[in-house]
């Protein structure tokens, strides 16, 4: 539920904690077998469970926070244990608790009203209203918005060393807006990401762009490759940019650059 930054997880392939209280205190909270025994699932399995349960498609934001995660897991809560029906997906770093990040999806008819929180409102690029809340130190940062049939709650840890701030949560929300609203080719979302991140990395303008094609690495990773030409003042050069993502849940994995 909202407000809990749960520090349990599994290996990076991702399975869910299920009922977190079902894991005994003396066990390693990252123990894979304990997570399975408590009802854990792969993220894509949790998504499929919720799609079947609610009878509507589930879409996660393609972009993840720009930090490293060691564990991810998901769970479709369908009233078991008295919890509100919703999907939860957690991303965590075993060695850096400040990298904790969670996505919750509630059907609009069961959305969380959260009237007790003081939100700061803003508009996403398609005029969707996004509400941001920053709690006291060592609690949480929260971005809430509605898209399609779902209310999205994006939660990050609020610590002094946290790198997942309002800007990062907003960029994640924007990646979903772009993906759902786009009529461009399927690779366009990753091309936009490649251009944005390359401009940020080199602090130069991208003056030319060419899609180079897709490579399937495994059932859990696909790569899209782009050729970008950069220019700033008299300096010009090219960069091959390769974006890796999960082909089922459409989430960003990594990006690499090769200058030429």
Shape: globular
Strand order of the largest sheet: 1-2-3-7-6-5-4
Give me the CATH fold name of the largest domain. Protein Transport Mog1p, Chain A
Give me the secondary-structure category. alpha+beta
Low-confidence stretches: 1-26
Features:
4 helices; Protein Transport Mog1p, Chain A; four-stranded antiparallel β-sheet; alpha+beta; Nuclear Transport Factor 2, Chain: A; about 260 residues; 2 domains; seven-stranded antiparallel β-sheet
What does this entry look like structurally?
It is a single chain. The chain is 19% helix and 36% strand. With 260 residues, it is of the alpha+beta class. The chain has two domains: 20-181, Protein Transport Mog1p, Chain A; 188-259, Nuclear Transport Factor 2, Chain: A (Roll). The strands form two sheets. Strands 1-2-3-7-6-5-4 form a seven-stranded antiparallel beta sheet, with helices on one face. The model is unreliable at 1-26 (pLDDT under 50).
Question: Could you give the topology of this structure?
Answer:
Blueprint: H1 32-37, H2 43-54, E1 71-77, E2 86-92, E3 101-107, E4 120-123, E5 129-134, E6 139-147, E7 150-158, H3 166-181, H4 188-202, E8 205-218, E9 221-232, E10 235-245, E11 252-259
Antiparallel strand pairs: 1-2, 2-3, 3-7, 4-5, 5-6, 6-7, 8-9, 9-10, 10-11
């Amino acid at each position: 539920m909202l407000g809990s930054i749960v520090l349990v997880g599994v290996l990076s392939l991702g399975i869910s904690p299920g009922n977190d209280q079902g894991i005994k205190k003396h066990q390693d909270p990252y123990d894979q077998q304990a997570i399975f025994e408590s009802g854990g699932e792969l993220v894509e399995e949790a998504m499929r469970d919720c799609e079947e349960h609610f009878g509507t498609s589930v879409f996660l934001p393609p972009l993840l926070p720009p930090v490293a995660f060691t564990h991810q897991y998901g769970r479709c809560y369908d009233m078991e244990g008295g919890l509100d029906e919703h999907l939860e997906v957690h991303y965590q770093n075993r060695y850096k608790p400040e990298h904790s990040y969670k996505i919750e999806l509630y059907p609009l008819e069961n959305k969380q009203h959260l009237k007790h929180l003081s939100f700061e409102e803003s508009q996403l690029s398609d005029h969707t209203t996004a509400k941001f809340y920053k709690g006291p130190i060592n609690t949480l940062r929260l971005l809430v918005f509605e898209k399609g049939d779902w209310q999205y709650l994006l939660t990050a840890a609020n610590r002094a060393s946290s790198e997942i701030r309002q800007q990062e949560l907003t960029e994640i929300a924007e990646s979903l807006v772009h993906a759902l609203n786009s009529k461009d080719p399927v690779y366009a979302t990753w091309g936009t990401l490649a251009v944005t991140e390359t401009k940020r990395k080199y602090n130069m303008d991208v003056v030319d762009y060419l899609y180079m094609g897709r490579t399937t690495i495994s059932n859990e990773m696909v790569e899209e490759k782009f050729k970008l030409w950069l220019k700033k003042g008299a300096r010009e050069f090219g960069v091959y940019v390769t974006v890796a993502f999960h082909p089922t849940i459409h989430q960003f994995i990594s990006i690499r650059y090769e200058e030429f």
